[in-house]
């Protein structure tokens, strides 16, 4: 007799990735500052549930690329697409600033290298997280506190410090507040710029563990920028190597980092061994 149990149907399902489209895409992204081309014709795709690492030495254009993806800065050329309802086929870079802000609030969480860029350092940590909810019109104080507490707990922030101001917290805790704020509205995209630079190695490892867990649980499409190959190794499934605004090599992280093909990547990898 034909077995139509759930398990047998499940075996017939096509692999999930083959049907999935990138959640976030950039095409032909360019950004110049006077004579410097910070980002030069960069393409990238990020799928739900994956972490793409962007590595390169200081000044290679990593942070600028992230700001373009976060719609924070106008690009000189290129497109950014987000596979979310209502935005299919829309170049997000061509939206007006109010619509860009709406996309950012609703779909994109960011963790900056310097906490003061992402947080109000003299507001409470819980207040910083609640700010995301206030931005979408939530006013119920109980709900704001509950959501802030939940997000901080998910980011493994010690809740007895939730009413402390970031200025009085350690660097690792400040990054956890940024993470909590980034995920408060359950975005689909997470952008991290050097999230652990400047932290002690042991603290770094704990923060990276939290990022990995959150990313997996929330199935985020994540881009992490770092000059530190260790961070990229720990987090990223795929990697793009940037130099002078261009992508010089890309592929699966283990392959690129174990067997780099471009002389520049070879230099980076060997310098860190
Ligand atoms: N706001 C800016 N004004 C002028 N030049 C900038 C600005 N932001 C970045 N740059 C320049 O663009 C290049 C890439 O910078 P950046 O994206 O910060 O690199 P990375 O994050 O890889 O260190 C550098 O030469 C930098 O000096
Ligand atoms: Mg940078």
Radius of gyration: 20 Å
Structural class: alpha/beta
Order of SSEs, N→C?
HHEEEHEHEHHHHEHEHEEHH
Please give the number of β-strands. Answer: 9
Sheet with most strands: strand arrangement: 5-6-7-3-8-9
CATH topology of one domain: Rossmann fold
Task: Tell me what the CATH architecture of one domain is.
Answer: 3-Layer(aba) Sandwich
Low-confidence stretches: 1-19
How helical, in percent, are the residues?
A: 40-55%
**What is the straight-line distance between the termini?**
59 Å
* CATH class term of one domain: Alpha Beta
How would you characterize the overall build of this protein?
This protein has helices at 6-12, 16-19, 62-69, 97-107, 115-118, 125-135, 141-154, 171-183, 201-218, 229-235, 253-258, 263-272; strands at residues 24-33, 36-46, 51-55, 77-82, 108-111, 189-193, 221-226, 238-243, 246-252. 40% of the residues are buried. The N and C termini lie far apart (59 Å). The strands form two sheets. A six-stranded mixed beta sheet has the order 5-6-7-3-8-9, sandwiched between helices. The chain has a three-stranded antiparallel beta sheet with strand order 2-1-4, with helices on one face. It is built from twelve helices and nine strands. It is α/β, with parallel strands linked by helices and 273 residues long. It has a domain at 20-117 and 189-272: Rossmann fold (3-Layer(aba) Sandwich). β8 and β9 form a beta hairpin. It binds adenosine-5'-diphosphate and magnesium ion.
